[in-house]
Specification:
267 residues, single chain
């Protein structure tokens, strides 16, 4: 007979990174934590997401790179302006109609016949392989592109990760829907709120201090801010420390009420 459990037990579960993302859906930190979870799961170097609502145009709400975010963002803009009509998966990049579907498509740069497409979107940024998740439904289309440098994706990896990738696609769909509903302030709007909050107490922040505070308000880590601004980690820490000192606060938990008050005052 199995031993009886005590009446008062505490069990600490250790969920995987993608499951943890459920708590981050609809928040500003979702994209970075999603990218971190996928790097751990599949060893990717870049993630670029495209979205098309039913009856709407194609946009790129998320673009991240392991070293420099500007690389992923530049490639997303390049794709939207010049290359989406030449995508090998273009026939799948439209809303489904009456059903829901999810497809995984593998691409190796060396197999692409369009030499210009291969050079601009893979060769120049140093990318060798792509795993695409294409989720379609009557509400729209989600196109998640996961890139690697130096190593192709193996079929065994995809078999092991298939259920988690399915979860990822559904979480990302929900995240985009919630983000659209909540209308998260842009970085420019947050910079303005930080400047307003500083002015109300007679403080003046430098452009870098304003930028760092705006990113911090979105929940981004010092490492992520450094990558986004292409500056050193220690520089970010210094700018943040100076800004918090001028604002008379200790951390992000104190920053958010200041920005809320600044926004209400402006209204």
């Amino acid at each position: 007979m199995a031993a009886a459990l005590p009446n008062d037990c505490e069990y600490r579960l250790q969920p995987d990174g993608l499951t943890e993302l459920v708590l981050d859906v609809g928040t500003p930190v979702f994209a970075e934590r999603c990218f971190a979870a996928l790097r751990e799961l599949l060893g990717i170097d870049q993630m670029v997401v495209f979205h098309r609502a039913a009856g709407g145009g194609l946009s790129s709400p998320l673009a991240l790179h392991a070293q420099r975010a500007d690389i992923a963002q530049a490639l997303a803009r390049l794709y939207l302006r010049h290359y989406h009509s030449r995508d090998p998966h273009r026939d799948w990049l439209r809303p489904e109609g009456e059903a829901r579907s999810l497809r995984l498509r593998l691409t190796e740069a060396r197999d692409l016949r369009d030499a210009e497409y291969r050079a601009r979107l893979f060769g120049e940024p140093g990318l060798d392989a792509k795993l695409a998740l294409i989720a379609r439904s009557p509400a729209g289309m989600l196109y998640v592109n996961l890139y690697r440098s130096g190593q192709a994706f193996a079929a065994g990896e995809l078999d092991a990760a298939a259920s988690q990738l399915t979860l990822l696609a559904r979480l990302m769909e929900r995240h985009l829907a919630l983000s659209a509903e909540r209308s998260v302030p842009s970085l420019g709007e947050l910079r303005g709120l930080v400047a307003t909050a500083a002015a109300r107490i007679g403080a003046t922040l430098s452009p870098r201090e304003l930028e760092t505070c705006a990113h911090t308000a979105l929940g981004r880590t010092a490492e992520a801010i450094a990558a986004e601004l292409a500056i050193g980690y220690h520089s970010v820490v210094t700018y943040r420390k100076r800004a918090f000192l001028k604002l008379g606060i200790a951390g992000r938990a104190d920053l958010l009420p200041l920005l809320l008050a600044a926004g209400q005052g402006a209204a």
